[in-house]
Amino acid sequence: PLGLNVLGSSLRGKDKQEWMELLPRLRNGLDGKIEKTLRVSYDELDDKDQEVFLYIACLLNGQKVDYIKNLLGDSVYVGIKMLADKSLIRITPPRKTVHMHNLLQKLGKEIVRVEFICNPGKRRFLVDTKDICDVFTENTGTENVLGISFNTSEIDEPLFINEQSFKRMRNLTFLKFYKEWSRETSEGRLCLPQGFISLPRKLRFLYWDEFPLTSMRFNFK
Q1: Mean pLDDT across the chain
Q2: Phi/psi of residue 211, each to 5°?
Q3: pTM
Q4: Which residues pair with 208 in a beta bridge?
Q5: Residues 132/148, Cβ–Cβ less than 8 Å
Q6: Cα angle vertex 197, ends 196, 203, to 5°?
Q7: Are 105 and 57 in contact (CB under 8 A)?
Q8: How far apart are CA 189 and CA 177, in angstroms?
């Protein structure tokens, strides 16, 4: 039903000739893997709407529309409306909360992952624990990184973050280090040097469970 809903929204409003031109792509995608089918609607979005889709898939699913606008700017509302019109998200009243189906979320995360399979530090969004650990351990983060959501419950040993780890991620706007308190966690933890002061000036959201230092001496407002 999700695939039919998304495809119907994608074809709505097009004439017969456009349907005929799109059919080969649909036929090739309907091989039992719904991600390929859903990718058709994603590919039809313009660049700005694709970025909104990826923000929601990787970081902001389940948030209110106003919350997303505060984080990304008022102009993002046009993209949210476009995604809803194409059935890529649902906006539920009364709080206008954005919901994305888990298969679409999976699609978004896979799109980001394959951008740079062997170099996660060049991806726009980092959500996989192993990839995030590799980026911090090897200090390979770049200006491409826009958001990080890190479940620290999944690390098995102490992770040492270099005081310069975020210096090259100057476009980072979203940073979330969180624990799953409902599950038994390992002994893994984040370790920061006492001189840690470098976080990007463009940061708009900071959430950090069990921040390891006694104060936050960061160079941004």
Answers
A1: 86
A2: -55, 125
A3: 0.82
A4: 177
A5: yes
A6: 125
A7: yes
A8: 11
**∠ Cα 95 179 209 (to 5°):** 85
The C-alpha atoms of residue 162 and residue 117 are separated, in whole angstroms, by 23
Please tell me the distance from the alpha carbon of residue 197 to that of residue 124, in angstroms, as a whole number. Answer: 23
The number of angstroms, rounded, from the C-alpha of 70 to the middle of its chain's C-alpha atoms is: 16
Dump pLDDT digits (tens) for 109-121: 999 999 999 999 9
Whole-angstrom Cα distance, residue 6 to residue 209?
Answer: 37
Amino acid identity of 130?
A: K
- Whether the CB-CB separation of 108 and 123 falls below 8 Å is answered with no
Q: What b/e string do you get for 25-49 counting C-beta neighbours within 10 Å, with b at 16 or more? A: ebeebeeeebebbbbbbbeebeeeb
Question: Of all helices (H) and strands (E), which one includes residue 126?
Answer: strand 125-126
- Six-digit token pair at 76? 């993002």
**Number of C-beta neighbours around residue 6 at 10 A:** 23
Q: Are 132 and 125 in contact (CB under 8 A)?
A: no
Residue 6 amino acid letter: V
Distance CA 117, CA 210 (A): 30
β-pair type (147-151, 159-160): unpaired
Angle between helix axes 47-55 and 102-115 (nearest 10 degrees) is 110
Cis, peptide link before residue 212, omega less than 30° from 0:
no
Structure tokens at 220: 């941004």
- HSE toward the beta carbon, residue 1, CA cutoff 13 A: 1
At 41 the pLDDT is: 86
The residue assigned the tokens 């708009």 is: 204
Sort strands 97-99 and 90-92 into parallel, antiparallel or unpaired. Answer: antiparallel
